[in-house]
Write a structure and sequence with these properties.
By secondary structure, the chain is mainly α. The chain is built from five helices and no strands. It has helices spanning about 1-40, 45, 50-70, 70-140, 145-150. It is rod-shaped.
Length: about 150
Amino acid sequence: MHRALRPLALALLPLSLALVAVAAADDRQRAEASLARLAAAPSGSAVAAEPIARARQALARGDDARQRGARLHAGLYDALGREWAELGVDLVRATDAERSADALEDQLQQLAEETSRAKARLEDAAAREGRALEALEALEAPAPASSREARP
């Protein structure tokens, strides 16, 4: 049974190698595009220095493997380079998201402080209003009975 499948496997081998080569070209293009995005990002080279270096190293090893005729290994190195480059892009995005979250947290803290101060001012104003109403009521209230009897 296995001997019967051998010719089929040998016939499919060039097709599978061609698919690996196409995937490798796609991986290389995606890696280079990601590296270009990282180069254009202001914080890209600082935050993702190691993934950038490793992606470039993997792509260089892929070139070496391709020159030696090892297409399968070249494709694997290109895929590895893509993974490292995409990791770098993800690191930059995560760093930018953290910075945005920190800025929003600072704004939230400022708003909470302003809200607290405004609440204290409102409570103070309500207390003054209450004291003023009590004083007004005291002025408008009729004189007590004992002061009326003392008048005649």
